[in-house]
């Protein structure tokens, strides 16, 4: 991976969209170490924060005067995103292993890092649409969510050696539901209520 260039990254992104499971298998075959993958995870978080800041500036510019846009500080947003991604990678690892998968920590970090990089690419396209064709930005966002779930399902199946994508997708939904309920319970303990 040391000599990878922008054209190689572009090819990998295209291959991921066409054949997500096979492309993730190729990436896994590189056998990158946990420290290297951790740096990659930090890098994609930084890229995501920078792009989010750029999008916020564009939204502020496109808004009429006097209309404010609520923004999180870049440091807080980056820390929050990193925490969510780390939680996600451990959920993928532990739930998958509990269900008979054979994924490891390095593979989980690779999965989350590459998936987040693809989402950064979608974010870039959405930012361009926001500037050029604002009406398309929402549709790209919805398409990005569908793409996220499709890639996540395929990546998890490849990481853990699962064959039934439907079961993997159901596992993702149940895990998300469980995490949401758990967070709601913890917040309730501290007296925080989430509006319906």
From TrEMBL:
It is a multi-pass membrane protein. InterPro entries: Yip1_dom. The chain crosses the membrane at residues 40-63, 75-96, 108-130, 136-156, 168-192. One of its GO terms (cellular component) is membrane. It holds the Pfam family Yip1. It is found in: Membrane. Keywords: Membrane, Transmembrane, Transmembrane helix. Residues 15-181 form the Yip1 domain. This is Yip1 domain containing protein. It comes from Profundibacterium mesophilum KAUST100406-0324.
